[in-house]
Amino acid sequence: MKILIRPHDIGKGSAAWLGQTAHEWGFDGVQLAIAKAVEGQNGNPGTLTPEVIAQIRGGFNDNGVEIPLLGAYFNPVHSDKGKVRAGAEKYADHLRHAAAFGAQFVASETGSYNDDKWTYNPKNQTDEAFREVVEVFRPMPAVAAESGVCMALEGAWGHCMYRPEQLKRLADEIDPGQQHFRFIVDLYNYLYVGNHEQRAKIFETCLKLFHGKICGFHLKDYQVSGDDLEIVPLGDGLMGWRDFLPVIRSECPDAYLIFEGVKNVPQSLRFVRDLVG
C-alpha cells in the first residue's frame, strides 16, 4: 500500500524541497494543500496556470513522489457566506485542475457552525446543518465528472457529518452510486472521550457503508488525557492499528494511507510499513 504525508507537516517551501524531503523520509506521495505547503502559492482560482502546475508537479514527481490527492478544505457552513462562496469556488477549481497534478481526488471536510475553530457545535448535528452542507457540495460531482476525477469528503464528530451514516447520506443525495464521490476515513476524527471505546464498531461501519469507495485513511493514534484524546505516535496508543491495518490492506488495498499530524514520523512510518509492507 502507498503511504502519503501532508507536505505542510514537513514545512513550507518549494515543491522541489518538499518532494525531496518526502522521498527522504520514505513516503510514496502527498496529500497536497497548495496554500499551506508551497511557498509563494495560494492555490486560488486563476493562479493554477499550466506553468505553476508543471513546476509544483515536477518538484514532487522528479523526486519519485506522486500527488494523488489535493486538499482544498473549506467550511461550508461558515457564517461569512463570502468565505463559503470563495471556498466552494476554490474547491471546484481544484477539481478542474486535479488531473494536471496527476491527482485523482480533491478533499474537504464538512464544516462547523463554530466557523474557523472547526469544533463541536450542537447545531452541527441538526437537519438544517445537513441540508446546508448538501446544497454547497451538490454541484461538485458534476464538476468532478467533467474533469475525470472524484471529490472526496471526510466526516468528524465535531463537524456537520458527525457520523459515517450522515456522510453516506450526503453522498447518496448528491451522487447516488458515488460515481464521482469518494470517502476519506479519519477514524480519530469520529471519536471523542464519550465514544472512543466504540472505535472498532465505527471502523467496521465505515468499511461497510463506504465499501469500494474509500480513497484514503488518515492515520492517527491517541491516549486519553482527562477529557481529551491526545495524539501519540502510531502504535503507541489505543486506536488498534495492529488490528485495523491488516483489515484495510485486505479490504481496501488501493486506498492511500495518509499521515496527518502524526507524532514521531520515523517511528510511526516503520510501524505502518511493518504491517502493510
Task: Provide an overview of this structure.
- Helices cover 40% and strands 17% of the residues.
- With 277 residues, it is α/β, with parallel strands linked by helices.
- The strands form two sheets. The protein has an eight-stranded parallel barrel, surrounded by four helices. The chain has a two-stranded antiparallel ribbon with strand order 8-9.
- Strand 8 (221-225) and strand 9 (228-232) form a beta hairpin.
- The longest helix is centred in the N-terminal third of the chain and has 21 residues, at 81-101.
- It is globular and about 50 Å long.
- The model has no long low-confidence stretch (mean pLDDT 98).
Short structural summary:
With 277 residues, the protein is α/β, with parallel strands linked by helices. The protein has helices at 15-25, 34-37, 50-61, 81-101, 127-137, 140-147, 164-174, 199-209, 241-251, 265-276, and strands at 3-5, 29-32, 66-71, 105-109, 150-154, 181-185, 214-219, 221-225, 228-232, 256-259.
Write out key terms for the chains shown.
40% helix; eight-stranded parallel β-barrel; 10 helices; 10 strands; alpha/beta; 277 residues; 17% strand; globular; two-stranded antiparallel ribbon
